[in-house]
Design goal:
By secondary structure, the chain is mainly β. Helix content is 0%, strand content 40%.
Length: 131
């Protein structure tokens, strides 16, 4: 039996420095295929879910995105050209194309859904302590 498991590994929700438009691509989420077979992410979605339960942003993966076992995706909040790197981690660098930050420092949850709308995995941002 093959195990298919894509995991939300990390959310870089608070890039160093000031929150400026040129630091949008330093805010990102990392997904990894933790299973033992290749997974197509065609039609899969990643959504943010704030502490109030409001879902505000959705990214849908296109048909070309596949992950072999242990392959990773880094999905950046900003804009650039999507790229695939053969034989290196991460395999994919994808860009959401947003003009504002997605992941809230006060608490947020990234939820990954498969192409049937079934929740696959999620990861919650630990809120930053106020100083």
């Amino acid at each position: 039996m093959t195990l298919k498991r894509v995991s939300v590994k990390h959310i870089n929700y608070n890039p160093k420095g000031k929150d400026t438009p040129d630091s949008l691509n330093q805010e990102y989420i990392v997904l990894e295929n933790m299973g033992d077979s290749t997974v197509s992410l065609a039609g899969w979605k990643i959504m943010d879910n704030t502490r109030t339960g409001e879902r505000r942003h959705t990214y849908t993966f296109d048909e070309k995105i596949t992950l072999k076992p242990r392959d990773q995706i880094v999905l950046h909040s900003g804009s650039s050209k999507d790229s695939e790197t053969k034989g290196k981690q991460p395999r994919w660098n994808l860009y959401w194309g947003k003009h504002a930050f997605i992941w809230n420092n006060e608490g947020d949850t990234a939820t990954l859904f498969d192409d049937q709308g079934k929740e696959v995995d999620s990861l919650q941002v630990v809120p930053l302590k106020e100083s």
